[in-house]
Amino acid sequence: MSFRGDSYDQALVRAAHHARAWLDSVAERPVGPSATAAELLAGFNGPLPDGPTPPEDVVDLLATLSAPGLMAIQSGRFFGWVMGGTLPAALAADWLVSAWDQNTGMRYATPATATAEEAAAGWLLDLLGLPSGADVGFVTGATMANFTCLGAARTAVLSRLGWDVARDGLGGAPRVRVLAGEERHDTVDLALRYLGLGSPALVAADEQGRIRVDALTESLNAVDSGTPVVVCLQAGNVHSGAFDPLEAAVEIARQHGAWVHVDGAFGLWAAAAPSLRHLVAGAAGADSWGTDAHKTLNVPYDCGIAIVADPVAMRSTFGAHASYLISDDPGPGDPLEKVPEFSRRARGVPVWAALRSLGRSGVAELVERLAGHAREMAEGIAGIDGARVVNDVVYTQVCVDFGDDARTRAVTARLIADGTVWMSGSRWRDRDVLRISVSNWSTDADDVRRSVDAVRRASADASI
Ligand SMILES: *Cc1c(COP(=O)(O)O)cnc(C)c1O
To answer: Of 61, 67, 77, 145, which sits most exposed with the smallest number of CB within 10 A?
Structure first.
């Protein structure tokens, strides 16, 4: 069979049709899926057909089988976990990324997508207020962004002691001490585990989940001098939305010679909004930052961003070359020198498209709108009998309890069954909570009003 562009026509037309039907349904369909994974299995499963099926029939079948099992994460009334929707320019760019099929590892091989990513990287550093010479790697999500940044950290803190981890590994290496706030995201632990650094030593947090600088100071003072140290800070707690006191924490960690990493999966974006920028003051003084584009920026999954101030640390950890061959002035470098993968899709291209379509003011307005709707949601819910907002709503996250744990769980279950909204149940600071994350670009005032009404209904029903 030879390549013919028109052999894609039928399948792409069908896919566009199904995509439109899905997007048209999002505004009014129940937000949650109507079938469970177990119920969907029979449709997808079954014996592998003996022979081929026309591509357009496969696309139709996929759409039909999937429909009952799709979560409307795109809905303006989806507030689960911390998940954004998808901006039109980003979705369309993502389609092109698939059609182009560019394996974006090397600049000379795929110059268009590599350059679009470089441009997006420059815009990101500017918007997030980070050093313009930093290396930016496009990875699958914040988990891998944390992994990538902490990989560079591991290289750097060991190399300062004369240990070449790329050549000699971790066996016999000085033990790297990693400190993280009690309420760090679990994926920081995952990243450290993947890197062979074990679990972090935990530093006490305050009632909003922010690392306590006095406790951090104490922990740092207790570390023997000459020990390689990494401090993991957080911009945006998944429950409260709170930000670690970055200015003071970065300064004290620096005084102790630590590498400072900031997990800012959704919080780092506060830097792009003038009215919220104070929340990340001091972040730029860190060594590395992990964030997501598939949350606050609203590009399709999978898209995280690993940012490392020192390109030498980044490129001697990733990429296939000897660590000693790095020049002091590395230039833009190949994409594969800044991420763990060799082959990968051009996932930075939808970031370029999102930023190009929003512009500086659009990004600022997006982040401010999310935080503004979170405040309105909190005010509305605080007016419901028996509901209590339990965090300081400083950003996009709202946590609510409804008296006791059993009642909070009952309200959450009724809310999800009602289908008007989708919000996560969680446990925070020893109590069950209903957790709301306003992360979707399309949430508007009407969504907020309908969502507060849905919470009121669920709360009234759960009282009976
Ligand atoms: C979502 C999140 C992560 C993990 O990000 P993924 O994109 O799911 O890998 C890490 N840290 C924080 C603070 C998060 O909110």
So the answer is: 61
Q: For ligand 1, which residues put their CB under 6 angstroms from it?
A: 82, 141-143, 185, 187, 236, 238, 263, 265-266, 292, 304
Q: Which residue ranges make up each domain of the chain?
A: 7-72, 92-353
* Ligand 1 atom showing the smallest separation from residue 238 Cα: 15
Binned at pLDDT 50, 70 and 90, residue 328 comes out as very low
**pLDDT tens digits along 208-257:** 999 999 999 999 999 999 999 999 999 999 999 999 999 999 999 999 99
The per-residue pLDDT for 319 is 85
Task: Looking at the CA of residue 146, tell me the nearest atom of ligand 1.
Answer: 10
Omega cis (within 30) before 430 = no
Report the separation in Å between the CA atom of 383 and the middle of ligand 1, taken as the mean of its atom positions: 31
Reply yes or no on whether the pLDDT at 266 is more than 60: yes
| Closest-lying ligand 1 atom to the alpha carbon of residue 294 | 7
- Which pLDDT score is estimated for 325? 46
Q: Which among 73, 182, 263 is the best mutation to test ligand 1's pocket, defined by most ligand atoms within 8 Å of the CB?
A: 263
Candidate CATH numbers 3.30.470.20, 3.40.50.300, 3.40.640.10, 3.10.20.310; the one for domain 92-353 = 3.40.640.10
Output the CA 295–ligand 1 centroid distance in Å. Answer: 9
| CA–CA distances in Å: residue 120 to residues 97, 166, 354 | 15, 29, 9
Residue 331 has a pLDDT of 76
Residue 264, both tokens = 């800012």
Residue 242, both tokens: 């709170």
